[in-house]
Prior knowledge:
Elements: E1 2-10, H1 14-25, E2 30-33, E3 47-48, H2 50-58, H3 62-68, E4 71-72, E5 75-80, E6 83-88, E7 99-100, H4 103-114, E8 120-123, E9 126-133, E10 139-146, E11 149-160, H5 167-171, E12 177-191, E13 199-205, E14 208-215, E15 219-227, H6 231-236, H7 239-249, H8 254-260, E16 268-276, E17 281-282, E18 285-287, H9 302-322, H10 328-331, H11 333-354
Parallel strand pairs: 1-2, 1-11, 2-8, 5-13, 11-18
Antiparallel strand pairs: 3-7, 4-7, 5-6, 9-10, 10-11, 12-15, 12-16, 13-14, 14-15, 17-18
The chain binds flavin-adenine dinucleotide.
Amino acid sequence: MKLEADVCIVGGGPGGALLGYLLAKQGISTIVLERHTGIDKEFRGEHLNQDGERVLKKYDLYKKVQEAGLLLMERIEYWQHGHVIKTVTPAVADQHVGIHVPQKNLLKVLIRESLPYQNYNLLMGTKVTELFFNQNGNVSGLKAIKGDQDVTIKSKIVVGADGRFSTVRRLAEIPFSTIKHGYDLLWAKIPSPQGWEPTIKNALVNGKQLALFTQEGGFIQIGWNIEEDSYPTLKKQSFAPFIKQVIEVFPELTETVHQHIQSWDDFILLKVQSSRSPIWAKDGVVIMGDAAHTMSPTGAFGINCALLDADALADIIKEAFDNNDISADQLRKIEEIRRAKVEKLQMQQLIKEETYQDNFKIPAIS
Ligand SMILES: Cc1cc2nc3c(=O)[nH]c(=O)nc-3n(C[C@H](O)[C@H](O)[C@H](O)COP(=O)(O)OP(=O)(O)OC[C@H]3O[C@@H](n4cnc5c(N)ncnc54)[C@H](O)[C@@H]3O)c2cc1C
């Protein structure tokens, strides 16, 4: 298959899907490639904050996502020995302390709104494998595989929105450095008991964060930080004392946890690390979202950052075509707008992680 477009976006996650919509809306011929065949793929964080909400509202997408299903978090609680010791409620101007949006609902809306544009093409189940360079060394398109079929795409700009292990970043030889966070994450999903309110509940277990995120659709996502690289050793130990720690902090979950988390196999391990790239663009290619700056799960900033990147990059790409300037300098305007903000958030994530235990300190009585 041979195709041609002004812009080819690799990755149909939140960042790539929004960018595809925004470019298509502006009349720019756009192809989005996604390696998965469907949108209900592996679990990613699904909490939006005010930044993500603002971007969706700016483009009249929020209501549509709301119709597809989302849930407003009413408060954040800090728990110790079965009791709440601190509660954070929304600021007066906000109605929530975060929004749970199942990623399939967000992606479904972004794709559904994009598809009617004649200048938009979405190729699911299509994995990029190679970048093409012209005689000046500028990226001029890419090669991908869809099933057993080769796909060749000629495009003026390739966007790498392909996440933390970005193939575009690697093929374009864009450097990056990783930041270690000293922990890995265990995830499990359980049904929420009757009457469970939309909250984020935090606890401290062996000095590490154990968090419960209420989810749209009647579920709770458990996120449990464990020492980095400790899971193979942990898995050799007895499971019962490990899971008992959840029940000790959240006694209301006794029955549900016993029913739904019965062995180590009921957890999914996620390796945590963040990264940043010193440059986000070269001639003919630009990276964004997790490909440019992988965020750790702390504070739920990643999707929001990817949506903000897409919003900014859509304007930069539009300007590039209006002024007939698709140089690296033009594309690197995304760095001027976004880099300092993203790197500040990455610092905040590290600080939040280092000071997490302080949330559980009882104030001294004078
Ligand atoms: C455990 C965990 C919890 C998190 N919790 C939150 C949270 O609550 N809130 C939040 O805001 N952020 C959270 N994050 C971060 C968030 O998931 C990411 O920052 C966000 O998904 C980045 O969006 P993206 O579009 O840049 O990349 P991604 O969501 O990673 O999307 C990249 C897409 O590219 C596709 N792709 C990859 N390689 C190729 C290829 N070669 N060819 C074609 N397609 C390809 C992938 O299949 C994927 O669909 C969490 C992250 C983790 C690991």
